[in-house]
Structures are given as structure tokens and as C-alpha cells.
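seq/struct pair 1
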Amino acid sequence: MTTTLRPEGPKTPTAAGGRTRRWLILSNGHPVGALRTTADPQGSQLWGRISELEITEGRGRGRGTFGALAAEEVLRNWGCTRVDVGVPEAATTARGLAVALGYTERALSMSKRLVAAPALPAGVSARPFDPADLDDWLARSAEGYRRSLVGSGLTEEQARARTGGDDPPNPVPQGVDTPGVVLRRLYGADGGEGPYGSIWVQLRLRDLPDGEPLAWVMGVEVSPDHRGRGHGRTLMLLAERECLAAGVHDLGLNVFTRNEVAVRLYDSLGYEVTERLYGKPL
């Protein structure tokens, strides 16, 4: 049997200025699966992504492996220097395939259905950001994210490109009053001691299949002098309270696989892994 990859349609542009194309996986000319390749610019480089990879007929015959390798070759010919693939947590076979093909797990996506607003521990209080502090905090957050990207396997150049290079876009163009954004800091009960840490939540990252909004933790930081005292947990509880106050019942986040302390925290709070991100250089 001969397995081949054939375009299902033309290449189309992406919102980020790249291109994407869907392909059919054929066995002797008969469709047995499909996938999508996408390439988007990251600074001076192109990064590839494989998605929608599904074998509909004849699983266990190496067709998934062929599809992934063929997709990599497409992305390589498009000029991509790296490829990422997100694998749903339930897709254990696909996760095994990613590892077998040399992909390294970099990050987890986790989410939780929010039901009741949790109480905050005694002795703490939440306050909005002081607008005068926001720019410095965002700069520190971006630098911390860059270091985490390098720790997850990216090069310095790739990490800088992912964080916007020398002139990153402003994620909160209206500052602390940006619609749909929650920026809070944690202090002592009387507001005098602290800040213990900060939380940044996007109240509607995207819509879920049922049309309900999915909020996202964009950043959570515990001040260095106050780590190891449970403030990370309190900040997450604060994020949940803010979501429920806005009528949002689903909260998600990304966490780097190497950050085992954070992974354990989110797991203890009831967050479940929904997807694993794997990547490798091309």
C-alpha cells in the first residue's frame, strides 16, 4: 500500500501573517485521515504547528506516523525552524506518537469549572493595581515568561520572538481599566503589608463549544519575599472569585511542565489537564 499526502484545498493566510493548509492522508488514493499545517512568523523565524491530525480508517498501521512526518516536511519546506503540536489529554495514542517522534512536552493547559466563590483566607485583602506600578510589573512578567520559555526548550532568539522582541504589543492598552481584564494585588488584611503577589485574568479568552466564555489566567506572581506562605493558592482563589463575580464559570491556564510546584498547586485546586503541548526543532 502507498500512503500519500494531498492538499484538500489551497493555502490560506492566517491572522498572524502566516499561512495554513489542510491535507488529506491517502492510502492507494483512498482518504484515511487528514491534518492541517500552519506556519506563523515569530520575529525573524517561522514556527510551524500540526493540528487536526486524525486517522479515520486503518488505525495502528503507521498512518499517523506518516502524517506527522509528512507534515513536518511540509513545514520544513515552508521555512519553519520549529514545530509544535497540542495533544488532547484523552488522546493517549497521539501523546505516545509525539514522544516516539522526538517531541518534548513543554507545557500543560488546565481548566476548572467554577461553581461557588471560594472564601479567601483570613489576614489578606485584594486591591486593584496602582496604575503607576503596571508598566514595571508587565515588563517583569514578560521577562519571567521569556526565561520560562528558554527553560522549556526554546532558544533565546525564539523566546524573544515569542514575547514580542524589543517592541512587544501592549496587552492592556487601557491600563488597569482595560475592558475584560482583571488586575489585582494581594495585601495584608489592613492593606498596609505587601503586596504579597499579583493576578492577571482575561475574562473571555475565547468561547467554549457551548457558547460560554472561557477566562484565562494570563499571569500569577508571588513576590519573592513572600513565597512559600500559600499566597499562590490565595491568588488563584481570588481569580476564581473575580470570574464568578463577572458571571464566568470556566477558568483555564497554561503551566510549563517543568514548574512542578505550580502543577501540583493547580491539581490540588481541582484544575484538570485538557491538553499537552509538545515541540521540537526542525
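seq/struct pair 2
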Amino acid sequence: MIDHPISYGRQFITDEDIEAVVETLKSDYLTQGPKIAEFENAFANYCGSEYACMVSNGTAALHLCALALGIKPGDKVITTPITFVASANGFRYCGAEIVFCDIDPDTYLMDLDKLEEILKASPRGTYKAVIPVDFAGYPVDVERMRSLADEYGFAIVEDACHAPGGALTDSLGRVNMVGNGRYADLTVFSFHPVKHIATGEGGAITTNNKELHDKVCLYRTHGITRDASLFHENHGGWYYEMQELGYNYRITEFQAALGISQLKRLDWSIERRNEIAKKYDAAFAGTSIRVPFRAGNITHAFHLYIIQVENRKALYDFLRENKIFSQVLYIPAHTMPYYKQFGWKSGDMPVAEDYYSRCLALPMFPSLTDEEQDWVIEKVLEFVK
């Protein structure tokens, strides 16, 4: 028996992480110093992308992508209803019209067949961007999406907040790390405490497009540049120019220091998460519990381990009684009161809504002990039986 609470996710902070932060706190910089560039270079290298831009959080990253793409009021963009609302909100901040596309019943990702139907129903260029979400850590088929983007004229902004360390093997046998920029125009990440890399708050944008990279970096710092080669005029060494209306979406030095330290353990985290997933799979085999699907050509990052069960609320309550704090992720975004004002309603996304009625995220984090997982499994099976 486990007598302490077990959350569905939590951060893992080591002595090395603490030392890295303390060292930075004792340095000359708390913000806009060398650690941010170091983190950007290390993260870009890990993902295999040309560029990375560190920002204050994943939502800011999404907003910056919309700004960099020039999204304006009335532009149409497509995303999935099974995601945190920020995936849509980041583009709404620019006035975009959000169109939801239902999910695949196996992967819970945007259904690319249904996406293609939406695209075919309108002239080329109707949709300015598509924001697929690597939900729970499962990488979307960005290779196929790239072919659709080229045919129908939209940008791909991959929301990979759940999926650093995930990978997709493409039709040519190439292993594409999530965020490598081969297929997506921009990819966003989150460093929220329950994510793979935890910096408190924080986020990143990766891309292979220098123009887009320069834009997101400009917009994250008030639209201000200190690059003399870009100045309209120059008054001296102190001079800077505000060239666009930007935002303060900067990450701090000590967050970057923590991120650099955490990035060193990302491969271990992915390996451990997959071990936990396999143990859950084996424990629930032969029961009425539906476990996560995964194809052979992907590396699942397993931010979440989602099961589907009947009588989900009763199981949720039963687990809480036993100090197991599972979570329901997510309430379909199109059913939120804010998005209902634009005409969306329950029944519009039947697969997403069916998924929502039965989904439950069990504890999934690399520091979950075998004893804790055994307790979770015991209680789930006790309820189901």
C-alpha cells in the first residue's frame, strides 16, 4: 500500500539541476545573458533543427508563431479539439478564425483524412496554417502533412509541447526527431513542470527558416533589435530600435540553466517513460481497459499515458480516494463557452467527444517508482474487476 499522493505528472529536480540554477543566480546575469543562447543551441542540436528560440512559455511560443506567419483577423487556421486550449488561443490572439478538425480514433491526433476533406472543400490558400498537436507525446505524421501543406498552401505549426524526444521514421527511412524542421515550418515546446523538461514556465520554437526565426526572436522582446545592420539610423553604442509591436516573452537565465541541465536527461526520461508504458500495457492486457496505440514507425514521448474506460468518473473518484490523482485530458476545445460563440457545439466532433467521455491519464513521470506504479495498477484493476 502507498500512503502518499501520486499525481498524474510531476517535475523531477536533481542536485545537479539545483547547482546549475544556484551557479547562475550567483552570476552577473539573471535575464538576457549567455545561458539562454547556450540552451537554444543545445536544444536545436538535440532536435536537429537549424534554430531554436527560447521564450516564456508554450502559449507565448504559439502566439509568436502566429505573429511570425503574419496571421491577421479573419485568417482561417485549423487545429484539433483534443488539446489544451492554448493551441487555438495563440492564433486567436491575432484574430484568426479557428476551425476544428476531428481526431483519429486510434492515435487521438488530428485525423489527416478529415483534414484533407476540409482542405478539399475550399480553394487553395483558404487556410493560412494548420496546428497539429503531438498529443500525449505521439508524433503526428508531419511528412504527410507537408505534402498537404504544399498542395493547399498553408504553414505547419507543430504543437510538440507533449513530445520533445519523440520521433517519426519517414517513408525514406529517415528518423525525424520532433522539432527537426524537415517537414514543419515551426515547432513549439513547453517547459511547464509536468513536461519532459521543466523550467517552471518556459517554452521554445524550433525552425529551419531563418526569416521565421528572426521574426519570433524580434517579437519576443518588444519588437526591439540591437543588430546595427538592421537599424534605420544609429546614434551610438547605446542605440536600439523598436521595429515592430512585440511582447515581453523572454525566458530567464536561471530557467535556461535549469533547462540545460534537464535536457541532459531527456533521453533517459523518454526511455523510462516507455518502460512505464509497457508495464501498464502488460498489466491491462486482456481487460476492458483500452491502452494507448502506437505505430511501429514512431518513438512515443509518453508525456501522458491515456487509458479509456467505461464509467470513467467513478474510476477517477475511486483513484482519488486511494490518493492516486489521475487526470482527464482534454475537454474538447470546441465545447468551451468561448468557442461556442463562434457556432461550435457538442456533436460537431463525434470522435473527440467519444474519446473525452472515456479518457483518463494515469500517473506517468520518470521518477514514478515501481512500487507506486504497482499500486496504481492494483487499484485500477480492482475497480475494473
